[in-house]
Design a protein that fits this description.
Chain lengths: ~260, ~240
């Protein structure tokens, strides 16, 4: 198992705005379990995540990827185990320094700009200029006044990512954020993600797209039946997958 | 039939000449019902939003109770408000009985459950859409309620209209607490009841037509607003 990825330095103990805040990372999940309907959906998972880098979580449907990410982000309560972010249990302050983008973007029934403004206001920031800067970076500045729900699928997801990044999170979770988007939109989103990574944002990306995992991933977490069966640097994982499940998955075979 | 025809023509004449008495009655009706609607919205929308967003033990029973209260009998509400505001009642010292304020109170009590119950459904549907994102963004409850109310504003406008419709067309409660006093508490519905009993169908018909016209104009306006909002995906 990799403890930390050192290729990117990530952020240190000083917060985004320079305030002295304890670091969110590393994340240390120990003995994590999640049970629902009498079924163990996450089965004693141990996971450490260092700062910087893109960690890609892969695995067949039902492997528990989404549940794991929701547990890490504090959207679900684990049945057992603990999650430490920066050595502390997950609290609202820590969660506010994280952001999540879902497969289907949830946009407010407002204009494109108002969606960004909403996220900024939650973090005590205001201002048209800041909104526009965020939209410029997302390539959506010309649609600022347009209702968000009239955007195309790719634009909606770009807006969702821009909104997630607006408040400068230290950790960004993306749950199959590019599923069912056209190649151009996928590339645009990947560029945004890599740019965020280069700014030191820790990216945790769920995807089924092997090509995308190769393009983005610095390290790969492979899950099967609620467990992490393999974790390795991306190049090592794709060249020499250690587990049979990962080999079957990469070869396009049914994973048993 | 001839009387009926004459009544119609007189009614049009009253409207066309903007008869002072008629205008006074219409003005008071609109003022009382609009204030009642505003008061009820201020109370019922946050209740509806909170109920639509929250999950707690007994919530189902509370929703059933709220829905049942949509059918509150106006005369019973009128009687209760009368008892509260009469000299012997706990709020008798306020001296509100037989005033427009008493009518506003009665109408507000009548339509608050309607607005709360209908807005609860609207907010619950929207919250189902936003809930996951709100949880991820750690949106505080108050902000979440305000956001849901704002984003559902076009649907809630229809809800408010339903409340206004009930208030402006109501007669049982306002006649008990208002007393139908000329130039003081006489509104369209109580005037229609009085004029009909007196056999003065012209004024009653004119008021009836105005009531229908108000309902028509407000409904058309709200529908146009909603259609525009839907077209631009704000609703």
């Amino acid at each position: 198992m990799l403890d930390t990825i050192t290729r990117y330095e990530g952020r240190d103990a000083v917060g985004i705005d320079g305030a002295d805040e304890p670091p969110v990372l590393p994340c240390d999940a120990r003995g994590l379990c999640f049970e629902a309907g009498g079924e163990l959906l996450i089965d004693h998972v141990d996971l450490k995540l260092g700062s910087g880098a893109v960690t890609v979580i892969m695995g067949p449907n039902g492997a528990g990827k989404t549940i794991l990410v929701r547990l890490l982000h504090g959207m679900l309560e684990p049945s057992a185990g603990e999650i430490l972010w920066g050595g502390r249990t997950l609290c609202e302050e820590t969660r506010k320094r994280q952001a999540m983008v879902f497969q289907t973007p949830v946009l407010l029934r407002r204009s494109v700009e108002a969606n960004i403004a909403f996220a900024l206001r939650l973090h005590g920031e205001n201002g048209h200029a800041r909104c526009m800067q965020t939209l410029e970076e997302a390539g959506l500045a010309d649609k600022a006044r347009q209702p968000a729900r009239l955007l195309s699928g790719g634009e909606r997801q770009r807006l969702a990512i821009a909104r997630a990044l607006a408040a400068d999170p230290e950790v960004l979770f993306l749950d199959e954020a590019t599923a069912s988007l056209d190649p151009g939109s996928v590339l645009a989103i990947e560029e945004t993600v890599l740019s965020a990574r280069d700014r030191g944002v820790k990216i945790i990306f769920i995807t089924h797209d092997i090509g995308q995992a190769r393009r983005l991933g610095d390290d790969i977490v492979f899950m099967h039946q609620g467990r992490i069966v393999e974790r390795a640097p991306a190049s090592e994982f794709f060249e020499h997958p250690a587990s049979r499940a990962a080999r079957d998955y990469l070869a396009g075979r049914i994973v048993l | 039939m001839q009387d009926f025809g004459q009544a119609f023509s007189l009614a049009f004449h009253l409207l066309w000449t903007a008869d002072a008495d008629l205008m006074e009655i219409i003005g008071l009706s609109l003022r009382v019902s609009l204030i009642a609607m505003a008061v009820s919205c201020a109370i019922a929308l946050p209740i509806g939003a909170a109920l639509g967003m929250s999950r707690f033990r007994g919530r189902g029973a509370l929703i059933i109770l709220l829905n049942a209260m949509m059918g509150l009998p106006p005369v019973v509400v009128g009687l209760c408000v009368y008892l509260m505001l009469s000299r012997a009642g706990p709020f008798g010292w306020l001296g509100l009985l037989y005033t427009p304020t008493a009518m506003i109170i009665a109408q507000s009590i009548l339509i608050t459950p309607i607005i709360a119950a209908l807005s609860r459904q609207v907010i619950e549907d929207l919250h189902g859409e936003y809930a996951e994102q709100f949880r991820s963004m750690c949106v505080p409850v108050r902000t979440a309620i305000a956001t849901l109310l704002w984003d559902a504003r076009y649907s809630l406008l229809t809800v408010a209209l339903a409340g206004f419709g009930r208030a402006v067309a109501e007669v049982g409660a306002v006649i008990i607490v208002g007393g139908n006093i000329d130039h003081l508490t006489r509104v369209m519905t109580t005037a229609i009841a009085l004029e009909t009993s007196k056999g003065d169908l012209a004024l009653a018909l004119a008021l009836g037509m105005v009531l229908l016209l108000i309902a028509l104009v407000i409904n058309a306006g709200v529908m146009a607003l909603r259609m525009t909002a839907t077209r631009y995906s704000y609703a």
